[in-house]
Amino acid sequence: MKKLPEITMAFWIMKICATTLGETAGDLFSMTLNIGYALSSLILVGFFIVTLQLQLYAIKYKPLLYWSVILATSTAGTTMSDFMDRTLGLGYATGSLILITLLIATFVAWKKTEKSVSVNDINTFRGETFYWIAILFSNTLGTALGDFLADNSGLGFLGGALLIGSLLLLIILAHYFVKVSEVLLFWLAFVLTRPFGATFGDLLTKPLEKGGLNFGTIGSSTILFTILMVLITVAIIKNNRIEKQKLIIGK
Question: pTM, whole model, 2 decimals?
Answer without folding.
Answer: 0.82
